[in-house]
Design brief:
4 helices, alpha+beta, about 110 residues, 5 strands
């Protein structure tokens, strides 16, 4: 792997570890997968951290509206949206958005 690839992988690892710490009160765990990391609550994935450290949260038809209004983009064709910078930088707001995304993911399994 070249230097650029190593930096990107490190960015994703560091971001996932930091998010796991920040979201620990929610019972979040992370797992390396597909070159990035998945964030899980109750063993259900509700977020993706890509190799560049970008965070995407699970959304549904209702919650995707908030992401769109904040100027976020969808992760390919998957139901995950990038977390806006101001939300990511505010631990309380990030926890709220993450809790909502976890509920969306859990409800999608029912």
């Amino acid at each position: 792997m070249g230097t650029k690839g190593a930096r990107a992988k490190t960015a994703g690892i560091e971001a996932a570890a930091a998010l796991e710490d920040t979201l620990a009160p929610l019972g979040v765990t992370s797992k390396a997968m597909f070159g990035g990391h998945g964030l899980f609550k109750d063993e259900i994935m509700f977020a993706i951290v890509d190799s560049d450290g970008r965070l995407y949260l699970r959304a549904d038809g209702t919650t995707a509206v908030a992401f769109e209004a904040a100027g976020s983009t969808q992760h390919m064709r998957m139901p995950y949206w990038e977390v806006p910078g101001p939300v990511r930088e505010d631990p309380e707001q990030l926890a709220e958005w993450a809790a909502t995304a976890a509920e969306v993911a859990i409800n999608s399994r029912r």
